[in-house]
Specification:
Chain lengths: 98, 473
Amino acid sequence: MIRLVRDQSAQIKRASEVRFTFDGAQVPAHSGESLLAALIRSGHLHLRDAPEDGAARGGFCCMGLCQECVVRIEGQVVESCRAMVTSGLAVTSLKART
Amino acid sequence: MTEHVDIAVIGAGPAGANAALAASRHGLSVTLLDEQSKPGGQVWRARSAAILDAPSTPESAAGGALRQRLQNSAVARLGDTRVWQIERTEDGWVLHLLRQGRVEQRRARALVIATGAREFVQPVPGWTTPGVLGLAGATALFKQDLTLPGQRTVVSGTGPLVFFVAAEIRRLGGEVAGVITPNGRGDWLRALPAMLSRPDLLLRGARWVADLMLAGVPIHWRHAVSTVAGDGRVAAVGFRPLDADWSPVGAERGIAADSLCLGNGLIPAVEAAELAGVALEHRPELGGWLPRRGADGETEVPGLFLCGDGAGIRGAAAAEIDGRLTGLRAAQHLGAETASERAALRPRYARAARFGMAMTALSMPRKGLAELTTPDTIVCRCESLTGGVIAAEIAAGAGSTNAVKSGLRAGMGACGGKFCQTAVARMIAAAEDRAEAEVPPPTARPPLRPVPVSALAGEFDYSDLPIPKPAPL
């Protein structure tokens, strides 16, 4: 089939794979990418529960404004879209129950 | 420690970066601040360190060229820096910054604000479900991390962005389950004369649409997403036909998908300009509420200049030239002679702005779209406030966004109202049969971005706290 927009995914070269944990689960990622991108790619979309109604929430604006994608790293609440993956990082969700 | 510079520029997108470069060429000391680690803004966002190599795109090439020019210039760059408060002093400006987890201050004689835009998403039932990303938000994911929102994505929204996002998903190897756009084919035909000023961009957009058609991706013109279904993650997207005013009419249909990119145009990010003392005016043809400005970015506030999408949505091509004009105007304010240089640039700016404003006209939501927000729909994401709760507050007399904010906390949550205030203002206007121009956004208040208490408190030891001796009994 003719494609006017070619699939270039095979031409993307990424840094070697590292792992971090999200609520204890191993997540494959690439050093230096955004935490949110790595979480989305591995299917971890539900990152927190809304404080008022407990509903599932995850990344939305992807640019550090909406605060929907916040997670906990070393006790600090950080925007996962603005945090960088490093090998061995321990990330926990802000879910009421994990 | 407070450093003094001639000009501080907030925002390193095409507008801010070019303002910094233009002023720097006239020998002024310029500091360029941005919350991203690398310059480029949202439109030319840099790739992450995890991408070792990837095919070039027009956006990556333009961003790369801009970053190279900054590298070769005398502009001082402060990345990963958030401005959370702006104060005017007798001899200039004090910027309160958040950098590396700490607060600090910078002083400048003149200030250029180029804070760009954020997107407007009309709330629909289920839009808070994980797997729903903003349409512009998805482009950040593509540009920085070359990552897809999911395996099978519905792309929905207004203007050219919806087709850019669909094309990027296909370029990165993903599947577009369907494109849903409130614009009709006739809207695009009417924009054609203005688009002829940039045949290159017109051709690029036409390729995106033709590619989707060849691939058999359904394009639902004059439709909008009406519901998102899924427990904890997106499972299906419902959509309905719209009338000429974009009111939903007719039955809902559904598409199975694991992700949705949803956006309805851009809104100028005006809070920084407002904190700096500029009054707002309503200019729907430029994206809604704007800080008032004159020629070449000047404002009524001495030493304050504005440029780029934050001063009216005109797109990246116009923002570049607007930035240069504004940087030169700021340099003039500090004694440089730049009048003839600016006069030569203005015709180019007008041409680029014409194209950009045609895209803004396509992207701006029409009135009926607000009807997608049902009483059960969450409008304020931070506080989980529904349309019904906000409507009741308005009916009880809350006739301004400030009143709704103080009554319900809609706009007082973590995002600072960035994703609910436009919808709330339109609800007030509709309920009280007033013009949108009569319902301004709530008064901007610091912090412009969340500031952790630890950054404000700094490092201290409890033993350092002075505790007065107990009074003798």
